[in-house]
Specification:
By secondary structure, the chain is an alpha+beta fold. It folds into three domains: 34 residues, no CATH class; 84 residues, Orthogonal Bundle (Arc Repressor Mutant, subunit A); 45 residues, no CATH class. Strands 4-6-5 form a three-stranded antiparallel beta sheet. The chain has a two-stranded antiparallel sheet with strand order 1-2. The protein has a two-stranded antiparallel ribbon with strand order 3-7. Strand 1 and strand 2 form a beta hairpin. The longest helix is centred in the C-terminal third of the chain and has 21 residues. The chain is elongated.
């Protein structure tokens, strides 16, 4: 903890007991302020659930903390190299790549471009970061990814996705599967489209 003391001169009107008149007197005022060094982070309940799901060993915890701490309030879009992380921990690149894939699967991180990632601000917010701004950018990134998938999706499925999925809720997935099979799309791809569109 850092304690800062600031002194200043403050003028007050005081009553002179001898003359009965108000006089201006100067007083020295000391103000102390306390500041925590390092600061705080914001963690949502979903983050804890992800940690339990993803981390099966001490190494997994170390990998998670290392990757998570790459993201700071002023560096929210980060380049993560599986090879560099692997070298740091003395493990194989495949182990690191697999772990990053797990983080992608549980939506703790999301690709913003090739080898660049963003940390999910609905699970974890780095120290001093603007939560509202990060969450708005995350939602915008989600929309961009939906549009990219829709652009790569057969036209019959795009019509179903845009017009019907949001309205139909749970029935939307059934409709999506039917249209997807007609369009030759895999079930995994249909599920990905459905999850992104229905958010």
């Amino acid at each position: 903890m850092q304690i800062t003391t600031v002194s200043s001169i403050v003028s007050h009107q005081v009553l002179n007991n001898e003359t009965g008149e108000l006089e201006t007197k100067d007083f020295k005022e000391l103000k102390q302020s306390k500041r925590m060094r390092g600061g705080f982070r914001m963690v949502y309940k979903k983050y804890d659930e992800v940690v339990i799901e993803v981390c099966k060993s001490q190494l997994d915890i170390k990998l998670l903390v290392y990757i998570r701490d790459i993201f700071t309030y002023n560096n929210i879009d980060q380049y993560i190299s599986a090879a560099e992380v692997a070298d740091h921990f003395g493990i194989t690149r495949q182990k690191t790549s697999g772990f990053i894939k797990k983080l992608l699967d549980v939506d703790l991180v999301r690709r913003s471009s090739r080898k660049r990632y963003r940390l999910n601000p609905f699970m974890y917010i780095p120290y001093k970061a603007d939560a509202a701004m990060l969450q708005a950018e995350w939602n915008e990134l989600s929309k961009q990814q939906v549009y990219k998938i829709i652009d790569e999706t057969p036209k019959e499925l795009v019509a179903v996705t845009r017009d019907d999925i949001a309205k139909l809720g749970a029935n939307g997935f059934t409709l999506l599967i039917q249209a997807g099979f007609k369009a030759g799309m895999s079930v995994e791809r249909q599920w990905e489209v459905y999850n992104l569109v229905s958010k």
